[in-house]
Write a structure and sequence with these properties.
252 residues; alpha+beta; 2 domains; three-stranded antiparallel beta sheet
């Protein structure tokens, strides 16, 4: 007989899987980034297989994905007895930490000051790091403007954001993706509200799916205030739901 926590786990996994299929190698990167993101952290192969099994990942698919990640310099695999253990390389750790600074950020604080750089359109130099391209030769940044002699620079407050820019930042596909993500996260939250006793493996699987789908949508747009996005934008709501679920689940 299936107990209550296993039924809740199955319902939550199904809700998150409806967000779409994901590549096995990308799921592995998510697991490693969520559970083994410190130098020296390792995950045993059998444990990784059990985390991925509830989403239908077969052993042969896991082996192919691990081979690809080793070839691309993301992970290193060693043997402990007859068991393979996997860890992130320095490259994998560095890129994981960059993404984690956004993925696990609970609240995005924005400066009062913004700056606009405008370059000669015919010979546009590369923009300073972190700036948002508005059009050919035009870039928007947050905070104090850096020195850049090749640009016309204006600094002040953002008074209005036109609809064309809102749509460029979050088009219909991204808006729909966040709508679906918010619906799935709400379903998972309601499913787990009275559930306790999930196993460490179940927790790891749920965290993997939550973080993976959150990351997949989050990294498709820059962090900007609500006014930069179209009406009905669910990005902020999804952040709150993700952080609430990760807090509830804890780290296995």
């Amino acid at each position: 007989m299936v107990d209550k926590k296993d039924m809740a786990f199955g319902t939550a996994v199904a809700a998150l899987r409806r967000l779409g299929d994901t590549s096995v190698w990308s799921l592995i990167v998510t697991v490693m980034g969520d559970s083994a993101a410190r130098k020296g952290d390792k995950i045993a192969g059998p444990v990784l297989a059990q985390i991925l099994e509830p989403v239908g990942v077969r052993p042969e698919a896991l082996r192919v994905a691990l081979h690809r990640l080793r070839k691309d310099g993301w992970i290193v695999s060693d043997k402990t007895g007859r068991t393979s253990v996997h860890r992130l390389t320095d490259k994998g750790l560095a890129e994981t930490r960059v993404a984690a600074s956004r993925i696990y950020q609970r609240q995005v604080n924005f400066p009062d000051q913004w700056y606009l750089f405008w370059a000669e359109p015919e010979e546009t130099p590369p923009p300073p790091e972190g700036m948002l391209r508005l059009g050919r030769g035009m870039f928007l940044g947050q905070g104090e403007a850096p020195d850049c002699a090749d640009f016309l620079m204006m600094q002040g407050h953002v008074k209005s954001v036109p609809q064309w820019l809102q749509t460029r930042l979050a088009g219909p596909d991204l808006m729909l993706a966040f709508d679906h993500l918010a619906a799935a996260l709400n379903e998972v939250t309601e499913t787990l509200v009275n559930t306790s006793g999930l196993s460490p493996l179940q927790i790891a699987t749920l965290r993997m799916l939550i973080v993976h789908h959150w990351r997949r949508s989050l990294l498709k747009h820059p962090d900007l205030p609500l006014g930069f996005f179209p009406d009905g934008w669910q990005g902020g709501a999804c952040r709150g739901l993700v952080m609430g679920l990760l807090d509830r689940l804890g780290r296995p």
